[in-house]
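Revision sheet: structure tokens.
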Amino acid sequence: MFMYFFPIFLIVTSNVIYNICQKSTPQSANPFSALLVTYLTAALLTLIAFPFYKTDKSFFQSFSDLNWTSYALGAAIVGLELGYLLAYRVGWNLSVGSLVANIILAIMLIPIGILFYKEGFAVNQIIGVVFCLVGLILINK
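Predicted:
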């Protein structure tokens, strides 16, 4: 049961820290300098953590399983990081900016999940989407 909930806990905890850090990055800092330090820190932590995930492949062999998704994810992460940093700099509140972005994201992922990953979508989920849309309207008034 722990391994079922731990990833969600990690996502939520990391997202809280992520948004606080994005909101707290000095306005005077060049966003790309901030991103460079962020990614160097992430690369270092990844290198340190690498040996703790045991597989039958060596460090260099493990790269043979990768495809285009790692490069696309890297580009997406830069857009995500820059988007949040700029959103907070232009005045989005910590509590609202992330909420609006994540609700819109969740709604946009619904048709992708249905069409490309054959995920189901029940009536109660449709009702949930309606509540999210109403919430978006209310939170931005």
